[in-house]
Amino acid sequence: MGIRHKDPPIQAPKIIYWHSPPGNFAALNVDGACQNGMAAGGGVIRNAYGLHIANFFSFYEEGTNNLAETRALLDGLAMCEELGIELVQVQTDSMLVVKWFLNLIEIPWHLRLWWRKIKTLTRCLSIQIIHIYREGNYAADYLSKKGITIASNGAVNYNMDIKFKQLMVADEHKIPYIRHCKN
């Protein structure tokens, strides 16, 4: 018939874990969310063993996903400073945030105000920033979506919010997530 059929290559799924920060660093996982033009962010701070220190969600009203990711980073770093946490490993699933933080690409003009605030805040902190897959960032993703749903700022009660606690305990015990790669 003249039709050639070639099976697409199959990629093996990846096993993803939450990453413990090095040494005396605390991990700050942050994420942004945008739905119907409304933006929110969330984040969780944990020690090197994955134990919960603090969490937050913030509602930013109208905005883009990039605004939400940026402001979630700012809110998380501000919380670290308030808590006296100086050694921070930021973990984000936004490669743009990582590249903006490392000055690898130009920051869009409408986000520069927020990035000036981030850079000012980081003078007081020792920061590492790493990109992680979204599967390793589910706790922060959950919190950012909570900000969208509630349309307010706040934090979840670690012991009362069952879904959040499940995500945190899974990360603490290195229970893997499966990432199915696209061809």
TrEMBL record:
Pfam families (UniProt xref): RVT_3
The RNase H type-1 domain, residue ranges: 22-149
GO molecular function, one term: RNA-DNA hybrid ribonuclease activity
SUPFAM superfamilies listed in its UniProt record: Ribonuclease H-like
Listed CDD domains: RNase_H_like
UniProt-listed PANTHER family: OS05G0353850 PROTEIN, POLYNUCLEOTIDYL TRANSFERASE, RIBONUCLEASE H-LIKE SUPERFAMILY PROTEIN
Name of this chain's protein: Ribonuclease h domain
